[in-house]
Amino acid sequence: MSLRLYNTLTRRVEPFVPLEPPRVTLYTCGPTVYNYAHIGNFRTFLFEDLLRRHLEAQGFDVLHIMNLTDVDDRTIKAAAAAGVPLAQHTEPFVRAFFEDRDYLRIRPAHVYPRATECIAPMVELVSRLLERGLAYRGEDGVYFAIGKFPTYGCLSRVERRELQTGARVASDEYAKEDARDFALWKFADPTDEQAGAAWDAPFGRGRPGWHLECSAMALQEIRRFGVQTLDIHAGAVDLIFPHHENEIAQSEGVTGQPFARFWLHGEFLQIQGTKMSKRTGNFLTARDLKEEGVDPAAFRMLVFSTHYRQQLNYTDEALEAAAEGVRRLGEFRDRLVEAAGAAEAARGADAGGDGLPPLPILPPLPPVEELRRSFTAAMEDDLNAPQALGAVFTFVRAMNRELDGGSLAPVQRGAALAVFDRVMAVLDVLPAVAEMDAEFRAWVETHLREREAARKARDFARADALRTELLARGVELEDGPGGTRWRKRRGMEGGGL
Ligand code: AMP
Ligand code: ZN
Fold this sequence. Notes:
Elements: E1 4-7, E2 12-15, E3 23-28, H1 39-57, E4 61-66, H2 73-82, H3 86-103, H4 119-131, E5 135-137, E6 141-144, E7 164-169, E8 180-187, H5 190-195, E9 206-208, H6 210-222, E10 230-236, H7 240-255, E11 260-266, E12 269-271, E13 274-275, H8 286-291, H9 296-304, E14 312-314, H10 316-350, H11 366-380, H12 385-405, H13 410-427, H14 438-456, H15 460-472, E15 475-480, E16 483-488
Parallel strand pairs: 3-4, 3-10, 7-8, 10-11, 12-14
Antiparallel strand pairs: 1-2, 5-6, 6-8, 8-9, 12-13, 15-16
Helix pairs in contact: 2-3, 4-6, 4-7, 6-7, 9-10, 10-12, 10-13, 11-12, 11-13, 14-15
Bound molecules: adenosine monophosphate and zinc ion (ZN).
């Protein structure tokens, strides 16, 4: 079996082979740190996390590079609006991004180059493009001449007749209709100077364009391996044009080598039928989810339940359904572990404590073999996570039946647990352990006593209201002959006060 991935460059699913196996260089466009990243951004970062984890599980040595866009049109505008220097505006959002990343269990990239710390390689790239006649000076900056680069448009398939050569576009973001010469370097204006976003360069004091930043940072990071080609470059579909198209032009214009072998693009997260975006204000952040006590595993499950190349519509119901799936997985794992523990204890007693009985040689359990096969097959097929999850739930149902039967040998349970945990290491969708703080426990106990008193006084309306209040914070009650027992529902974090 080998990994096959959809390559936007060829519009085909192709066998993935890195340039120099087992090394894989993976560059993913990182957040623009002018605000909190929203859960649409995180859908993309989670697809990239899944890609990275699968590659690692298959034995590749991944070098994961994610840049931080800490200078561009948007960051400068936001800093100016806040009346603070650029770095002062972006720093808290960089920290917030790392916190949110950790909350969502996204593996940290190996390097996070920041645009403002990589100005020298950017200046170098522009100088080389000028030398080669692929760039020229305009009145407000240095531009890339798309008419001089014959393969311009190869990724997004912008037709040559649509290219408006000689016409210019200065902004970092523009649509296909504006396939014009684009800004590599923007000469400093008073706003840039005020924000501290201007650097000297032989071709004029100014700041880099967003597209240039990624080319320079990616090439700088892979230079350590003596290569100029990335194995994989990823982002969401909105980056195909112009961002990635321009990255190709700038990089290949200098190196003469393919900039990336595989271009992977994830589809959008939608909310109420439109793209979640900061510009339109219809967004939710990871910290919103955290404050609502959402288990990060539930959000991961939600994201992986749709293939990365399909749009995903966010709803509270879908998140709740994902949380339910996560709870089922957690309960299943607890059951498997408990069963294994009980069997171990029994085995110890049988052996009289002075030696283990000989292990029986048993054939592998069909559900275990099936999970091993079908999970990998699904993931190797262009990261088909929904199908991989389907395989996991089929396994859980089959194993639950086996556990109900009570005839599993410890070695079989051990094998089941090992395979299940390996799969979970890729998806990472087991529930967060609910850590209850003392304050929360005290709050629950007080409410329980009050409810008990209300029941004694036959004030059932009050008792019900208290039950509802407890439930809202994930506390489930079970009234029995020995009194009321309570438990915290899985997947609800901490006290959540
Ligand atoms: P930005 O911080 O705007 O530079 O975006 C960071 C990443 O999130 C990029 O790969 C974007 O393409 C991606 N992105 C932006 N909006 C969405 C969305 N609604 N759904 C999925 N990915 C998105
Ligand atoms: Zn980029």
